[in-house]
Amino acid sequence: MSIWKKPITLELVNPRNARTAVGHLGIEITEIGDDFLVGRVPVDERTVQPFGLLHGGVSVVLAETLGSVGAYYSSPEGHTAVGLDINANHLRSARSGWVTATAKPVHIGRTTQVWQIDMVNDEGLPTCTSRITMAILAPR
Description:
single chain; 6 strands; Thiol Ester Dehydrase, Chain A; alpha+beta; 21% helix
């Protein structure tokens, strides 16, 4: 059963990221399932730190992007979602290719949501795991 309470498609979600930090970093949503989202970020000159590794902050931006999109589209019409807390454990570096993340809800409540975001490199090895708590704001 689908968790989405608002219409959600790749054609709706990805254009909203143009001309934002998400678009600048090359982050894209690639798949929408009944209860998950998949997105990815390139490991390139926009996203690496001075030692040539994917910047840890970029992994957090990817996690927050997926958690925010998931929380927004799984909240009731007229509601919005904002981040309250995020953490990330960096498990393995990435030097090239793509880092792909899958976001799944841990808890979808009336006023808060918790999302788990797991990231892997092109070989499928874990690079980072993150959890975000979102506040769900009712219309004013």
